[in-house]
Amino acid sequence: MLTIYSADHKLQDGKFELIDGQLMPPFERPQRAENVLARVREVGLGEVRGPDDFGLDPVRRVHDADFVAFLRTAHDEWRAAHGATDALPLNWPCRGFRQTIPESIDGRLGYYSFDAGTPITAGTWRAITSSANVALTGAKQLKDGGDRAVFSLCRPPGHHAARDLYAGYCFFNNVAVAAQWLRDRGAARVAILDVDYHHGNGTQMIFYDRADVLFVSLHGHPAQEYPFFLGYEDETGEGDGEGFNVNVPMRWGTAWDTYSRALDDGIARIAGYGPEVLLVSLGVDTFKNDPISKFRLESGDYTEIGRRVAALDLPTLFVMEGGYAIDEIGINTVNLLAGFEAA
Ligand code: 6XA
Ligand code: ZN
To answer: What is the pTM of this model?
Structure first.
């Protein structure tokens, strides 16, 4: 399987996230992608190639132009206001507040985000444009190269980012950008399977009223888990999109027995939809040793997830999302990919 990777991801190297009442070094750190890449090479998964540059048009197909413009200059504006620290928001336009865009960079950080765990750094813009290109290059290879599957080793991740919101370590929604690109190049129906531990709220929000992109997400129950305010089972889509959003929230402690049944149901929904192409939001923070998550999957379970996804027999783009057990992130990610390959 071909892997798409860019060292530009290292430019996203935040100093702090707000977590558990403390400012701590972010769990989402460069070593994650480096460990995945090392494992790809160690097992000989296949060639590793850099991304092409697709420009910003494909990004603007799923993100608002003002949001993209904000991200481009956010850190420069922050630096002019506060010095060379990472930019973090401090308050948000919650219930009862106006939804107008302030002039102040501090106000706009709050307007365009929904958490204080996602630092904007001097390198964020280059890292996120590169990460989107990694996803797009994988999509292009799938379409034009005729590969059965491609692995886009994206970092930063993307599935929490909505049309005009960043958070959860995500800025551009890489999997959504790639899915839309494939739609724009003739794929009539696209399915996205999100196996990251966290609900892919951004992907859901982007495609919620559309029947041409099916979104299926297996995740920690939002009553217990981030992002808390989306991801319930009764969110099934709206308008034309009614019936094309599938959430399977599961409680803390979920292990393979429960998880595998949910996976089979999700895969059956995708098979019934009859897509031309499948994208997988590949997070491995469902792992038992993940430091911020509470599922109990074992390393061997990822191999089986890959096998079951392969049974759909669809051209498949794997897009890296979360996973913070730094010592096992490579093993778990590549187990899933190798399980797919072997099937
Ligand atoms: C709160 C937790 C962010 C979750 C990030 C993630 N700081 N999403 O892994 O998939
Ligand atoms: Zn996650």
So the answer is: 0.99
